[in-house]
């Protein structure tokens, strides 16, 4: 198996900082905002974006996590016994500008499932999407609003985002 690093820890940190600033710019003066990370790696990316935004605004905004396994249209193809994680949305999503965060966007099916899951909690004013890596290959017309890296990869290649859940280290690797 061959591997190549496409984002170093420093690249990831810069991308997250850029995404956070773009989110603030787009949502300036638009009312309440909340960030929700999609399990598993999307939660880690969301926490980092959230921390940078709160530092920048010197205030607080809601942060949540979302498990979408039972909302996927392909869950039975992935596993007969999907591992269900905890969804933690302890704020009212109604009328918020909700930022969904995932590590990698590929077909768009994860995001479609996440939007279905969010609607069970209420109707946000807007749903915006932030992805650390956009690898292309959409099957649904879903595009991220904020992207750290856009890269094209071969069909037999896989992107692996290696993040420490608490720290700032990690890397993005393409494996074939």
Provide the gyration radius in Å.
16 Å
The gross shape turns out to be globular
CATH topological fold name = Rossmann fold
Stretches with pLDDT under 50, minimum 5 residues: none
The counted number of beta strands is 8
- What is the terminal-to-terminal distance? 6 Å
Q: How would you classify the helix and strand content by structural class?
A: alpha/beta
Largest sheet: 5 strands, parallel
Top CATH class:
Alpha Beta
Number of continuous helical runs = 4
Oligomer: single chain
Under the CATH scheme, which architecture would be assigned?
A: 3-Layer(aba) Sandwich
Helical amount: 25-40%
What does this structure look like?
The protein has 176 residues and is an alpha/beta fold. The protein has one domain (3-175): 3-Layer(aba) Sandwich (Rossmann fold), CATH 3.40.50.2020. The chain has helices at residues 9-27, 41-57, 75-78, 109-119, and strands at 3-7, 33-38, 63-66, 97-105, 126-134, 146-150, 158-163, 170-175. Strand 2, helix 2 (41-57) and strand 3 form a beta-alpha-beta unit. Helix 1 packs across helix 2. It is globular, with a radius of gyration of 16 Å.
Short description:
The chain contains four helices and eight strands. It has 176 residues and is of the alpha/beta class.
What key attributes describe this structure?
Rossmann fold, about 180 residues, about 30% strand, five-stranded parallel β-sheet
Q: What's the SSE blueprint?
A:
Elements: E1 3-7, H1 9-27, E2 33-38, H2 41-57, E3 63-66, H3 75-78, E4 97-105, H4 109-119, E5 126-134, E6 146-150, E7 158-163, E8 170-175
Parallel strand pairs: 2-3, 2-4, 4-5, 5-6
Antiparallel strand pairs: 1-8, 7-8
Helix pairs in contact: 1-2
């Amino acid at each position: 198996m061959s591997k190549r690093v496409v984002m170093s820890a420093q690249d990831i940190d810069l991308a997250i900082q850029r995404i956070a600033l773009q989110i603030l710019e787009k949502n300036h003066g638009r009312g309440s905002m909340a960030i929700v990370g999609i399990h598993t790696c999307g939660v880690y990316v969301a926490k980092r974006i959230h921390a940078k935004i709160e530092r920048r605004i010197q205030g607080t905004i809601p942060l949540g996590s979302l498990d979408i396994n039972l909302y996927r249209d392909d869950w039975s193809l992935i596993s007969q016994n999907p591992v269900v994680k905890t969804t933690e949305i302890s704020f009212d999503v109604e009328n918020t500008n909700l930022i969904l965060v995932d590590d990698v966007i590929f077909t768009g099916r994860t995001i479609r499932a996440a939007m279905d899951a969010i609607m069970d909690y209420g109707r946000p004013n807007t749903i915006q999407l932030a992805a650390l890596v956009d690898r292309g290959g959409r099957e649904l017309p879903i595009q991220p609003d904020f992207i750290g890296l856009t890269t094209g990869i071969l069909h037999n290649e896989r992107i692996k985002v290696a993040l420490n859940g608490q720290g700032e280290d990690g890397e993005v690797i393409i494996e074939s």
